[in-house]
Amino acid sequence: MSEVRQSVESSEPVHNGHSGRGSDAGGDGHGGHGSYAVSPEEMRRSLLIHDRVFEHSHQEIGGWLEVGREHRVLDAGCGVGGMTAVFTQLAGSVEAIDLDKQNVAETWTRVNATAGPQNVRVATGDLTELAYEDATFDLVWCSRVIHHVPDMVAAVSELARVTCPGGTVAIREGGFPFRVLPDDIGLGERWLEDRLSAAGVGRFGRPREPREGDVPYPFGWSQLLADAGLVDIQAKTFGFDSLSPLLADEEAWVTHHWRRWLTRADWRALLRPDDIEVMQQLLDPDSPHHLFRRTDLHLRAGLTVYRGRRPSERGIRSNA
Ligand SMILES: C[S@@+](CC[C@H](N)C(=O)[O-])C[C@H]1O[C@@H](n2cnc3c(N)ncnc32)[C@H](O)[C@@H]1O
Predict the structure, then answer these.
(1) C-beta 143 within 6 A of ligand 1
(2) Domain range spanning residue 198?
(3) Does 79 contact ligand 1 (Cβ within 6 A)?
(4) Which tens digit of pLDDT belongs to each residue from 166-201?
(5) Does the predicted TM-score (pTM) go above 0.85?
């Protein structure tokens, strides 16, 4: 196969005034949560660290999706290209799109640093309104984006539309948030991370500010795939485990997330003052309690992927 890599960036991002969530943040779309906006730079940094930490998990996911040279793959909402790189190694051809131009550029850089004579194209695009013919891809992958779009059933139906009959739509959503500490760290009250999680549940679990076009969908991810007309739905959670001493990227990942709890006033407001004090000590490299002095860390997480198969034409809902 000859090398045909092509970057196609439209002069203007296509999202202006279209997608309710995700357009202003340009990152993971948390900008759609009003006061919880994350700057595009902060989000991009988070995505880059995430992709380095979970590189092996991404490879495992590529294996589970059984991607081969005969397959055409779409990475919808590619972020900074962690999975695009995996598909580049495995598939016959890859298209990757994202609303955010800078993320598209990062993905392109990533793809070019990835070995493999694949046909890859990276462009700005909106997954709720894909610029592809029906039945273009064998696999459509969409990781951590669907929960940001205003109408999730319509969005997955759009992914299914561009998937060949018999092909696969796979979304990564849900999973287990990371933990790193033992329950008792000998400082403050036990179960600090449980309280952080609970506060996080409060953050994401509270009703979003209603936005024009939002369609409530109070059901699970497997149901979402079924409601978009997919069949043979399966789920798999890819576990991640790393023990002390953590790798530099893993430490950066933990630090990045914990710092955000303290530096963002809206998140910090959800924490107990005594927990804030403990976290400050854990994050202070000069403190005897600095997190990475510990020899008992266990960084663990679970990445969940749901996949479904597109049946015959009759099974697919129209997005119109
Ligand atoms: C949390 S990031 C996930 C990136 C990557 N898929 C991953 O799992 O690491 C969400 C990404 O989706 C993009 N995005 C949000 N809404 C989108 C839409 N309607 N169409 C295409 N991309 C979108 C954002 O720009 C961002 O890069």
Answers:
(1) yes
(2) 177-207+240-300
(3) yes
(4) 999 999 998 988 999 999 999 999 999 999 988 875
(5) yes
